Amino acid sequence: MNAKRFFAQFGRGCSMGLGMVPGVSAGTLAVIVGIYDELIDALSSLRKEFKRSFVRLLPIVLGVLIASALVLLGVHFFYSKAEFIICCVFAGFVLGTIPLIANKVGFKNETGKKIIGIVIGFIVAAGIGALSVISKLYWGLEFSAAFIEGRWWTYLACLVAGFIAAAACIVPGISGAMILFIFGLYNPCVGIYAGADSMFHNHDRILSGLGLTAAILVGGLLGIILTAKGMRRLMEKRREITFSVVFGFVLGSIVSIFCNQSLLNDANEWAYSQTPTWAYVVGSILFVGVAVGFYFVSRYATKSKEKAEEQSASVD
User: Fold this and answer.
1) Could you tell me the pTM of the whole model?
2) CA–CA dist 245, 118 (Å, integer)
3) What residues does each domain of the chain span?
């Protein structure tokens, strides 16, 4: 691989790193920049053609890792300064994918089952955010503080978080980072690497930080291995019903974005009580603008992928 192609692939990998923003699908970004098929091909042939696949994946993976780190630092900084505005941006990304998912549901048949699927998905997603709030208000379960202290169950939480985030990436239009956010685990996980209490600033956290990182990676690997085949079967045999549940989940996740324990301060007061009027105005404008913009971006990506699949089918 020559230097020109290496840096081109590195740049495409960097664009995929934006998938660390809740609501943004890394898979969609891979389609947009034109490396989705190559990425899947390299991953699938990694065992048989390790050297060739490794060379193809190296610049992409490096780009993803570097961009992801920068995105995490940016999200951590801005979220601490303007929670409501950042939540509006996240929700805008999520809303932008809804029309595309709704189009895949199709209400010409099995309408009753699909409506039930939408309701179930909505209740689960919205309930996750509400449960995280209840766990802090009534049970005193604060994820950020527990992660800093390195309590035993945080390793299990990271394992589950990695599993869910990786599994979510298999579903078209779903963002793994968004799943972590509505669980209230996004900020605690980011806090391992960024901020005054990160393992890079607080050296007492180095061992726990490495342990939590390992738990996330193991969970992600298990999520991909154990759920990939099941999700593919569902997408093949019960595609519309599956998308109806996904549609409901995405709708409910918008509720959880604005209602999860990361928006409660140490005194258990909502961040909204300290949000100035101008932030509501800016947040609302960004919400609409991001939703419209990401809808067209996602629509372009979807059409490009469908066109590529049609061309591949015609060649075969």
Assistant:
1) 0.78
2) 5
3) 3-315
